Amino acid sequence: MDYNFRELEPRWQNQWRQQGVYHVDNNSTKPHFYVLDMFPYPSGAGLHVGHPLGYIASDIYARYKRLRGYNVLHPMGYDAYGLPAEQYAIQTGQHPAVTTEKNIARYREQLDKIGFSYDWDREVRTCDPHYYKWTQWTFIQLFHHYYDTEQDKARPISELVSKLQNGSWTEGLVKPWNEMTEHEQQDYLMNYRLAYLADIPVNWCPQLGTVLANDEVVNGLSVRGGYPVERKLMRQWSLRITAYAQRLVDGLDTVDWTDSLKEIQRNWIGRSEGAAVWFPVADSNEELRFEIFTTRPDTIFGVTFMVLCPEHEMIECIVSEAQREEVMQYVSWAKNRSERERQAEVKKVSGVFTGAYAINPLTHERIPIYVSDYVLAGYGTGAIMAVPAHDSRDFAFARHFGLPIRQVVAPSVDEISDPATWDESLDSKTGVSVNSDFITGMKVRDAMRAVIDRVEQMGIGHRTVNYRLRDAIFSRQRYWGEPFPIYYKDNIPYTLPEDCLPLLLPEVSDFKPTATGEPPLGHATQWAWDEKNRKVVDNSLIDGISVFPLELSTMPGFAGSSGYYLRYMDPRNEEAYFSQQAVNYWQNVDLYIGGAEHGTGHLIYARFWNKFLFDLGLSVKQEPFQKLINQGMIQGRSNFVYRSKEDNNLFISKNIAGREEKTVAIHVDINIVDNDILDIEKFRQWRPEFADARFELEDGKYVCGWEIEKMSKSMFNVQNPDDRVERYGADTLRLYEMFLGPVEQAKPWDTKGIEGVFRFLRKFWKLYRVEDGGCQLNDQTPSKAELKTLHQTIKKVTDDIERFSFNTSVSAFMVCCNELTAANTASRQVLEPLVVLLAPFAPHIAEELWHQLGHDTSVCTAQWPAYDETCLVEDTFTYPVSFNGKMRFTIDLPSSASADDALQAIRALPEGKKWLGDATPKKVIFVPKKIVNIVL
User: Fold this and answer.
1) Could you tell me the pLDDT band of residue 340, with boundaries at 50, 70 and 90?
2) How far apart are CA 428 and CA 434, in angstroms?
3) Spatial contact of 539 and 123, defined as CB atoms under 8 Å apart
4) Taking Cα atoms as reference points, which of 667, 699, 698 lies closest to residue 683?
5) Opening angle at CA 295, ends 395 and 298, nearest 5
6) Of 52, 370, 405, 471, which is most buried with the most CB atoms under 10 A?
7) Residue 338 — pLDDT band, cuts 50, 70, 90?
8) Rounded to two decimals, what is the model's pTM?
9) Which residues pair with 643 in a beta bridge?
10) Residue 43, φ and ψ in degrees, nearest 5
11) What integer pLDDT is reported at residue 346 of this predicted model?
12) Per residue in 402-425, pLDDT tens?
């Protein structure tokens, strides 16, 4: 019986589905293991062969853990809110829900064809009200909590109100709490709520009609669509992630992530220790002063100018009338530049003098104050003391504007040089202080402590820790997202009652912003909250007494993806986000696999979300993802045809002499190319402009060029997994994607390579001698060589899976298959455990062979084979036998053989008699487990 994957793969997929083989319970007595993929956004293009790479790796591990006796949670769902569906709705009028549902159906069809072991009963979609009810619920909890720095955790805002009422909390109060109006009280609490409203400079994209996160903007353009982005001050909802900054840093020491990924997170959080110091503004009648944060307080004696960020609130207060127009023009220009642009342009210097001066509080020196876009509002206080001698950007600024440069750190007090001769700033991380009053001669670390002590004694500063991490903007001015459970009474936000959730996304007549610039929800006619009757009503009923307007912005895409891993534990629970029984059982994600592009945004948000729920006593682990692997990218093998520069209808084959000068390379669809040979007729049919194409051939063929590039529809190098499954089968696709290389590394897709994997599976099938009556195997005791092959493979594959080295596992299977084929193995004792071993990688062929071997249960629930160390012991060795240094033949000898044993065995062989005859060897050179050389 031949290997017919087209018949057996859909049959087993259907049976697995009908029998609920992958269904998982939350109350098993087995040890638990949670394997999770970063769930996809379902685009209209569907999957290409690069997408399943991580899914296949996680599926192998999930299946392996099941076979090791674990109760494995391996769910899948969809990150279903996103800009692409909304943009499509704007262009076509089709509701994003329709687009999303269609795309999800396409994804599900493709995923099923590959044979993943997902428990689809646990599927979640972020656009499903049953799901986003709990996103809204979490937002309400964030709104009603603040971060208690004494307890180092989130606490109910009501506790803070109680402290304000009894006078035990007075921080930042300008008048007693009980004398404040409702507006004043709510504005004050906004400074502490973990979900809060504030006027924030944002990345506004007019064409997309929404705010974008920093990682959604590159070079001033939106990642989605490439539209211009401008900086704009807008009232936005934000999450106070910064309150958790230190815990986000500390948590990295408890997880099994790569050092590089941890470093990315640490850099994003950007923890730095230093000092906050107040600098008075010279000649200010109101005794103005501003705060700076510095990690190097020891360099305060080297300050020669101050710089404010363009957004700094004190600019208008201190700017001189002579400089006002120039400063305001510069501020207006700089504010519209993204932080990423401003950080990237290290060689361009721009700025303007405010006309004002500050006073160095330790030297009493007057210092000019500038405004420059190289200082960011999001770091420290948005103001810096510039020490050009020891900071590269300060140095460039000082040289550009002709400002003084003063050395205050040197290798030793005797190694001071003239900054006028420098080409760049000098590193000041080590050495001693110079030209620095009372700290001169001190080592840098001692000098830092001494200056902090002095400013604290003087009451002009204090020790502090700063973070680069910014709070997360949580508003999006678009339609397709989770509605905020917020309504407004006299412009004061209030949350909906929890038992009224979910607040459903309303229907709108237009998916664009309104004519007055409001978000698309401004088109909704049923978007008001009846406080008394606790329901959404028509906007016409808004009276400001019992009916109030609802929030018009929606939540960002990351809202739904920040806690989805927890909902998978108990996805059908209508009474709670998840039950305590479920979370106590699963704890957190044991293995998380996804792309490296989520190394900052998603992982920071999800870790914050989880820590907040931990503070509420819901999640039971502070870190959501214990082990994390970033899968590499599968790159496409692009093909090119070469069009004549003089004749657009003429295409010249790659290797024709002089072709390079005469032609322009054009990407061509790889599906009409086979082994770099173009199918000319299909090319003519591919696009109308090529219908009459002519060709200069070589040896009667058109040879295309090729290159390894990112898979992209624009490069026509996307491989549809459906095509590969149709031609070779899902098991071949699964094995081949693993065989390409280490799962964490980028690797090129090569259509030619998949043929070899397909041949391996056919060869593996033939080992089992499948006939109508099942596998024609025997129950004889296998040879030592056969057992050695089996147990070597079990050990190798087991070790490889534990190390996530799936590519070497595939190689081990191929070696094993070759050895057993050469040995004509028909032993059930050898071949039956081999089926279980292959099952995580190629489950369809394994399931079929398992049943052909006579089993009624699924191979998915079999027991993982254990290797026998005794079968791996080498009891013989194959020696190369040489005569006078020339190798003539080989001989198998016991591992314990001596030189005399070797000579005696050689004499007994026909080949030995031929070369040795009756001669007595002059010498026998015998190296155990290496060589035998007979000198005649």
Assistant:
1) low
2) 11
3) no
4) 667
5) 75
6) 52
7) low
8) 0.84
9) 651, 664
10) -85, 165
11) 63
12) 999 999 999 998 899 999 999 999
